[in-house]
Amino acid sequence: MKFIGLNAGQFGDLVMNTVAARAIKQKWPESHFTLGIGQPFKEIAPLFKNHPYIDDVHIWESYDGLTDQDKYYIEENEFDKVFNPMPQHKHSDWYNRVKNQTEEVCLMHDLIPPDDLSCYLEKYFKPFGIGRDVVCISPWTAHEPKNLPLEKWEKIVKYIKGKGYDVAQLSAPNQPAIYGAWRSKIATSYMSSVNTLLASKLLITLDSGMSWTASAYQHPVLGLYGYHYPSIKSPKVYEPINSNAIYLEGQHANDIPLEQIFDQIDKML
């Protein structure tokens, strides 16, 4: 059988759906699965090449829908199923039903979730070797309500630098710069940011695509998470599965005291 995934959303959604790809291969071991990536996020495509559960990668012309050329591609390749891995959940209370949203991504497509719900990415490149005396921060998310104030990030950066570490900010060039963190030309694309990340000691992040990417490599992460819905029982359902991650939680990420963040930084460095 031949499957193709429609655009899976932004960076974090793409990484998250490696678990759905594993579930497809678990149900149909001989199947051929092509991961579809939207044009705005095509730079991340190399991370999914040579992947044990993904046979091919296709870049869609469109992000929000299918163009005529996209539809022709589906027909020409005679796919048996067009698999839409975008997490448009069937159940409004999904976050209280599953242990992790990667499980829900499988269930909403009638796939049996694999025993291992962690993500996986191909190590497409080797880190360029900036050294382990660097701490990365991913300070901004695609959803403004999740973000911390600029001044709080600056206090975190000042604390890390006081411990003798440099701080690299991993974010889009058009996002605000955190005073004290460096942003060089090599860290202005997602792929180069991953390269910087893998050569660092630790990532401190909100619920971001970089959090999911780091966890796919089981890279050390200090995650700052809040409750996104009034009825949610725990933000753990949003937290990528990572044996090297510590997650601090509050009603909002900004409610996590700086002293608690600093204490955890001390333990992880």
Describe the structure.
- With 269 residues, this protein is an alpha/beta fold.
- The protein folds into two domains: 2-107, no CATH class; 134-268, Glycogen Phosphorylase B (Rossmann fold).
- 28% of the residues lie in helices and 16% in strands.
- It has eight helices and nine strands.
- The strands form two sheets. It has a five-stranded parallel beta sheet, sandwiched between helices. Strands 3-2-1-4 form a four-stranded parallel beta sheet, covered by helices on one side.
- Strand 7 (202-205), helix 7 (209-216) and strand 8 form a beta-alpha-beta unit.
- The chain is globular and about 60 Å long.
- The protein starts with a strand and ends with a helix.
- The mean pLDDT is 87.
Strand order of the largest sheet: 6-5-7-8-9
Compute the number of helices: 8
CATH architecture of the largest domain: 3-Layer(aba) Sandwich
The dominant shape is globular
- The CATH topology of the largest domain comes to Rossmann fold
Beta-strand level of the residues, as a percent range? Answer: 15-25%
**Briefly, what CATH class of the largest domain?**
Alpha Beta
Main beta sheet? 5 strands, parallel
Question: What is the CA-based Rg, rounded?
Answer: 19 Å
Q: State the separation between the terminal residues, measured CA to CA.
A: 48 Å
User: What count of structural domains?
Assistant: 2
Spans of 5+ residues with little confidence (pLDDT < 50)?
Answer: none
Q: Describe the oligomeric state of these chains in a short phrase.
A: single chain
Q: What is the CATH superfamily label of the largest domain?
A: Glycogen Phosphorylase B
| Average pLDDT reading | 87
What would you call the structural class?
alpha/beta
- Number of DSSP strand runs: 9
The portion of residues assigned to helices is 25-40%
| Series of H and E elements | EHHEEHEHEHEHEHEEH
